[in-house]
Amino acid sequence: MKILHTIHTMFSEKHTLSLTQDILCSRLRCLVKLLERGQVPVADLKKNLEHAASVLEYMCTEETRQPVDPENELDDIKTDSVPVEVRDWLTFTFTQQKGLVLTRKEEKQRFRSIVHAVQAGIFVERMYRRNSNLTSLIYPPNVITALKHVDMWSFDVFALNEASGNHALKFVFYDLLTRYNLINFFKIPVSALVSFVDSLEVGYSTHKNPYHNLVHAADVTQTLHYLLIKTGILHWLNELEIFAVLFAAAIHDYEHTGTTNNFHIQTRSDTALLYNDRAVQENHHISATYRLLQREDDKNIFLNLSKDEWRELRSLVVDMVLATDMSCHFQQIKGMKNLMLQPDKPKALSLLLHTADISHPAKHWGLHHRWTAFLLEEFFRQGDKEAELGLPFSPLCDRKSTMVAQSQIGKVQNCSICSFELTELNGKSLKQNDDIKVKREPFILFHDTARGEEKSGVDISGFKSTWNQEIHNNRETWKGLAATGAYASISLWGVLKTEV
């Protein structure tokens, strides 16, 4: 057992490495590609690559080199500390047997070559895993095409989800962290990031919700990104705050049950009892996400944050996600004017996420119409459960009597008010409070120039114009449908929900 333990320790903490020279060279080439793309610190990586290359070159020429006295050179390798059985096994396994009887010096020389090979293998494996983690996200061509429009208000998250095979959240979150250079800035292990988002997507899919699912999370994350760059709020934030905003958007409905907080309270669910009927699901979204990060190290994207950074980011995330509780909506609207007089970053960011969360009435009709279908179908499913339990129907949850078109007119109006106040808040805050603005203009997003994206900048007037025009168009469309009696019955609503 001691022999096996020694072998295990020398090769890896998790599995035995038996890398050939070809594999080592291949992985070094991968690291070079990472260096060319600027995804790792150039100076450090270059230094380490040169060292690894020199070791590999030595390995390749070792067999033809004349023996030299290895006594002094072996001091740092400490071959005598390795059990004889292990040395024999390594020599037998990793060298060609020629039937020759080796002298003590030749044995040490041969073993030194093997140790160097093992050291190089472990070194390159760790370097490769640290920088590319063997799982760097590969963008399919259709995904690249879809993400070219990620800076646009008309971004079609459904098209991205189809192109990515139902992984819209993974690609949006990964792409935005890359664009803001947050992966490098916070030294986020890529393998942990990919594994974490994979788990997020599983959690979002647990209850098979028509609306509160991974596509909604991706949509909110992309919308929040748009708000950051177009309103100029981006220039008010440091890297940790940007990370917190994107993270909060990605997790804000994690493991959503497809029912409202009030449904949890009325049915006395375990979640409602756990959180004492206060922001029931929002508390769960945060808690479940952080338990996921803490429970599984291979998903811990906060691994390299300092304690202070971790606490600050968590505080922001908690504030933002709790504020997505719709019962706080009118309270947030009412508090906006105070924010204009005395800026408060956590409250402003909470409002930003809340705005992105309810923004689909301000998207073009093709997107808004589709989101409405999904949301009302989710409401109707809750109504079906309420009927089974003998509970009264919650608003908009009775699929037989809900007036779809009429219900959407007021919803669109509320969204419009929220958006207008948000942009006004942002403009005044940036102009009147330069002391809290991050001094780094122009902020450069780390776009992949090979994809041909155009640079995006602050455009508050254009943002308000686009948003208000879509609000107006959608409101008028719903009014027209209400006037003609469309979507007034379940049979007509069935046409709308065919995409669900």
Broad shape: elongated
Q: Poorly predicted ranges (pLDDT <50, ≥5 residues)?
A: 1-20, 66-78, 128-134, 439-444, 446-454, 489-500
Structural class: mainly alpha
Query: How many domains comprise the coordinates?
Result: 1
Radius of gyration: 29 Å
Order of helices and strands: HHHHHHHHHHHHHHHHHHHHHH
CATH superfamily: 3'5'-cyclic nucleotide phosphodiesterase, catalytic domain
Kindly state the percentage of residues in helix: 55-70%
User: Which sheet architecture does the biggest sheet show?
Assistant: none
Count of DSSP-assigned helices: 22
Can you tell me the CATH class?
Mainly Alpha
Q: Strand content of the residues, in percent?
A: under 5%
Q: Compute the number of strand runs.
A: 0
CATH architecture: Orthogonal Bundle
Stated plainly, the CATH topology is called Catalytic domain of cyclic nucleotide phosphodiesterase 4b2b
From the N-terminal CA to the C-terminal CA, the straight-line distance is 57 Å
Mean pLDDT: 78
Enzyme class: hydrolase
Pfam families: PDEase_I, PDEase_I_N
Keywords: cAMP, cGMP, Hydrolase, Metal-binding
EC number: 3.1.4.-
